[in-house]
Automatic annotation (TrEMBL):
It is found in: Cell membrane. It is a lipid-anchor. InterPro entries: BMP_lipoprotein (IPR050957), Peripla_BP_I (IPR028082), PnrA-like (IPR003760). This is BMP family ABC transporter substrate-binding protein. The lineage of its organism: Bacteria, Bacillati, Actinomycetota, Actinomycetes, Kitasatosporales. Residues 46-335 form the ABC transporter substrate-binding protein PnrA-like domain. Residues 1-23 form the signal peptide. The keyword Ribonucleoprotein does not apply.
Length: 349
């Protein structure tokens, strides 16, 4: 088994520029110096880094699986506070120069940097999760139908709510997180129109603290609890852990996101409150890309994961959830109706 190495780079400006700015300049290079033999792979984390109990940890699980099953050497690159697109360009360039193949950017914020770096390393496959805007012959876009999984969460929330008030907390108001809101609200309303949904975002671009500061999530959840919400769905990365804590202490239901948060070690004290989670199979997406490169048939273009391929799902780890037979039946029916095309889930509120 080969080791996983973690590295960090120093940022110099706001991470929010990753959405609005075009990629900044950086030293150019070619793939001529690459020493990749298909046995080295790297992931560059999104805001919050490894340990967020959610999105980044799911990506790490895929790298770890590749390390164990494929014998590859894995490298991790952590983000830093206040970093710019130029920092991401530098990070990806260094990872590619070191012979890592593939190099995977975890999150849409890496799109400008991958657009800049990928053409300079044509023999290296670059993966990006949650973005299809940047394309190229050596770019794999791993995207998910988050709205579909969120619809199922809405069905479950509407069925278990006793107060007829449920909450949604989005980390940062971006098109991606609005997909979570849209599916959730539609699922709630299709199941029980009398249930009131309270949507709330922690920050607005260019402020991305809503993905990284648990205190923001805790305060938002407390506000929703004060308005009688008894189910809260948080799509907020590391900030969501604060919401989970507040909801748990109030004795109400949480719905987690990205990873099966019931099984996340860092949330063990609150697990009984986590009814279910909307999972994205980021782990398999990362593993599959690494394996494709090692096999000499690298994936490229859009690789979409939806309910039909179990790319998004509703977790059933909490025994309390699986005992709710009427809720499970409603969720299963909604899932099949989406797969069969009887229900079209909105991607915007």
């Amino acid at each position: 088994m080969r080791r996983i190495t973690r590295i960090a780079t120093v940022g110099v400006a706001s991470a929010a520029l990753a959405l609005s700015a075009t990629a900044c300049g950086g030293k150019t290079s070619s793939s001529a110096g690459s020493d990749s033999d298909g046995d080295k792979a790297a992931i560059a984390y999104d805001i919050g880094g490894r340990g967020d109990q959610s999105f980044n940890d799911a990506a790490y699980a895929g790298l770890s699986k590749a390390q164990k099953d494929l014998g590859i050497e894995g490298k991790e690159a952590e983000p830093s506070d206040g970093e710019s697109d130029a920092d991401k360009v530098q990070r990806l360039t260094e990872l590619a120069r070191a012979g890592n193949n593939p190099v995977i950017g975890v999150g849409f914020a890496y799109a400008p940097a991958i657009k800049k770096v990928a053409p300079k390393f044509p023999d290296t496959t670059f993966g990006i999760i949650d973005d299809s805007s940047v394309t190229g012959k050596n770019i794999a876009n791993m995207v998910f139908n988050e709205e579909q999984g969120s619809y199922l969460a809405g069905v479950a929330a509407a069925k278990v709510s006793k107060s007829k008030v449920v909450g949604f907390i989005g980390g940062v108001e971006t098109p991606l997180i609005k997909k979570f809101e849209a599916g959730y609200v539609q699922g709630v309303k299709d199941t029980d129109p009398s249930v009131n949904v309270l949507p709330q975002y922690l920050t607005q671009p260019p402020n991305f603290d809503g993905f990284s500061k648990p205190d923001l999530g805790k305060a938002a959840a407390q506000g929703q609890l004060d308005k009688k919400a008894d189910v809260v769905y948080s799509a907020a990365g590391l900030a969501g852990s604060g919401a989970i804590e507040a909801v748990s202490k109030a004795g109400k239901w949480n719905i987690g996101v990205d990873s099966d948060q019931y099984n996340q070690e860092g949330l063990a004290n609150y697990k009984e409150s986590i009814l279910t989670s909307v999972t994205k199979d980021v782990s398999d997406a990362v593993f599959n890309l690494i394996k494709s490169v090692k096999d000499g048939k690298p994936q490229t273009g859009e690789i979409r994961y939806g309910l039909d391929k179990d790319g998004v799902a509703l977790s059933t780890s909490n025994p309390a959830f699986t005992k709710m037979t009427d809720v499970i039946a409603a969720v299963d029916k909604a899932k099949q109706d989406i797969i069969d095309g009887k229900i079209t889930v909105k991607t915007a509120p």
